[in-house]
Amino acid sequence: MRTIFATWFVLGLLAACAPAASAGEAAVEAVLMQQQAAWNRGDVDSFMTGYWHSPNVRFVSGDTITSGWNETLARYRKRYPTRAKMGTLAFSGLKIDLLAPRAALAVGRWQLTRAGDTPHGVFTLIFRKLAGHWVIVLDHTS
After folding, report:
1. Contact 120/98 with Cβ under 8 angstroms?
2. CA–CA distances in Å: residue 98 to residues 20, 125, 128
3. Which CATH code fits 2-141?
4. Contact 106, 124 (CB under 8 A)
5. Residue 139 in 3-state DSSP?
6. What's the pTM?
7. DSSP string for 46-110
8. Where are the domains of the chain?
9. pLDDT, tens digit, 9 for 90 and up, residues 109-142
């Protein structure tokens, strides 16, 4: 009898936790969709609201590690100085895993569509929920 009760208790707990995981994953995806929309408006400042506004945020690409929110913003502005260079951003193949109530991992593909080319690659993002908001604390993009 105790085993049956314990099994039902555990199943009940798992069912209660499932909506929270789905909500966390949906919230992380919403951040990415907001970033995509901001990029496609040519609004790098709004795009950066998806990142932790901290000197401890890290952006890794190629053989470069950029530390700091201001430094990451400067990197984006240098690499994409005009609307034409920014192109149109599309994310695809998103897979978001809630690692803990306040930590998530997002993996996916990115593509820019511009007049003369379509650069593309993959990304791995670590999100944390800080002050009630999901933000990227580490971005590894190639």
Report:
1. no
2. 10, 12, 10
3. 3.10.450.50
4. yes
5. strand
6. 0.85
7. HHGGGB--STT-EEEETTEEEESHHHHHHHHHHH--SHHHH-EEEEEEEEEEEEETTEEEEEEEE
8. 2-141
9. 999 999 999 999 999 999 999 999 999 999 999 9
